[in-house]
Specification:
- By secondary structure, this protein is mainly alpha-helical.
- The protein has one domain.
- Helix content is 74%, strand content 0%.
- The radius of gyration is 22 Å and the shape is globular.
Length: 439
């Protein structure tokens, strides 16, 4: 049954899912029309909302470019390649590859979402180099499916936000400790189920007879980045090929990383993950020239992020400023009761996530509505918040926004993996719903 559903899902996605850039353009037009029809905003107002929001994700866009570039640079270093190869050497069959890459991605995403996005895709590529007859699309989809768990993990933006003093909803719910969200029984149940069943589902999607996508492993064999010759070099070229320069600046970066963890504990965010990747990459490449050459290769895959993220920011601008996101949330509140409210909150967050693909941004939109409604129905604010968090994470499986870094690393398009991700999303949604409603 799983193979049959996967086959249908893949055919639909291959036929109808456009390129991620066209997808975001279509979303832009859909939100524009919905704003006119549902909120009564005028065309001029909607254009203003779109333009005002267009550049609101510039900082985040640069962070995502850096997570891709620095992750690629680190992975292309000789030492890191050997480490990935050593880890991949324990895997001997395509089925094992699918299961192991899913587990690695789940574990990495539970620690930090940015870390999980990059490590899963890099490890999947290394497995594809070493394992014969493994479906490359399913392998990358399995790596991306681990991202589903991120908002229930240690870097979940919503549970961390409401655990922070003076957060923007503190006057409504006060401070909610992570013991009531991330480490609550219902959340641990959901995480445990995803760790058990998502690898199994991904393995069951393997089709031994048809529709396999094998990649030429020689294409994945990246050449070592060579340093320029230093014979008869100019002073500038000697500096470019000096390991001393890399050592000095690399050690400076490592000292800051140590300083950060001493003062903040094991608190990972996107900036410190990028910082770690960057300076480890500088050190492990040995010379500035090798590092620069690797960066030049890495940035070739960043075009999708650079172009598409401003369009998503524009969509967010229209959703928030027009009141469209609020209207959608209120509709789900109106059909809920004290039992179904967490489920419908989860579903509404999953829908809003298509148009506001940012956990923090989505919480800013939905929190005032959902928290007050949950309070009236007797639902704990912790569960309401985590319902929004899991809805945000859930539909990321078929939202190209978050898949772009993994797709750039893998060299695939969104339609290559979204058919598999749809099945993982549907199965994951079952256990998320059970945890939110019954635990």
């Amino acid at each position: 049954m799983i193979k049959g559903l996967t086959s249908v899902s893949n055919r639909v996605m291959q036929r109808y899912l456009p390129d991620p850039f066209l997808f975001v353009v279509i979303l832009t037009l859909v939100v524009f029309l919905m704003g006119l029809i549902i909120t009564g905003s005028t065309p001029v107002e909607m254009v203003g909302f779109w333009g005002d929001g267009f550049w609101s994700l510039l900082t985040f866009s640069m962070q995502m470019v850096l997570i891709l570039v620095t992750g690629y640079v680190l992975a292309s270093s000789p030492l890191f390649k050997k480490g990935l190869r050593a880890l991949a050497s324990f895997v001997s069959t395509p089925g094992q590859a699918i299961v192991v890459v899913t587990l690695v991605s789940l574990a990495a995403s539970l620690i930090n979402w940015g870390f999980g996005l990059v490590i899963g895709a890099l490890f999947a590529k290394e497995l594809a180099r070493q394992i014969e007859k493994v479906d490359y699309r399913l392998l990358i989809a399995s790596a991306y499916s681990g991202f589903m768990v991120w908002h229930g993990g240690l870097s979940g933006s919503i549970p961390l936000t409401i655990a922070t003093p003076e957060h923007f909803t503190s006057d409504i719910i006060g401070i909610i400790p992570t013991s009531a969200t991330i480490f609550a029984p219902f959340n641990l149940f959901i995480v445990a189920c995803l760790f058990v069943f998502i690898p199994i589902v991904n393995r069951l999607m393997m089709n031994q007879k048809e529709n396999q996508y094998y990649i030429d492993r020689s294409v994945l064999d990246e050449q070592e980045v060579e340093a320029a010759t230093v014979e008869a070099a100019t002073p500038a070229e000697r500096l470019e090929n000096s390991w001393i320069v890399s050592m000095i600046i690399g050690l400076l970066g490592l000292f800051f990383i140590l300083y950060y963890f001493v003062n903040n504990g094991f608190s990972l965010n996107l900036n410190i993950v990028n910082f770690i990747f960057l300076f480890l990459g500088i050190l492990l490449h040995g010379t500035p020239r090798r590092f620069i050459n690797s960066v030049g290769d890495a940035v070739k895959g960043a075009g999708g992020i650079i172009i598409q993220f401003p369009f998503y920011a524009g969509i967010m601008g229209m959703m928030v400023a027009s009141g469209l996101a609020e209207e959608m949330s209120v509709w789900f509140v109106n059909i809920s009761n004290e039992v179904t409210f967490p489920f419908f909150t989860f579903i509404s967050a999953g829908i809003v996530n298509f148009f506001v693909p940012s956990g923090g941004g989505q919480w800013a939109v939905q929190a005032p509505i959902m928290l007050l409604a949950g309070e009236e129905l007797g639902v704990s604010p912790a569960k309401t918040a985590m319902a929004v968090a899991w809805g945000d994470a859930w539909t990321n499986m078929i939202q190209p926004f978050w898949a772009l870094p993994a797709l750039a690393i893998a060299g695939l398009s969104a339609k290559d993996i979204m058919g598999f991700c749809l099945i993982s999303m549907l199965v994951g949604g079952i256990f998320i719903s059970i945890g939110l409603v019954f635990i």
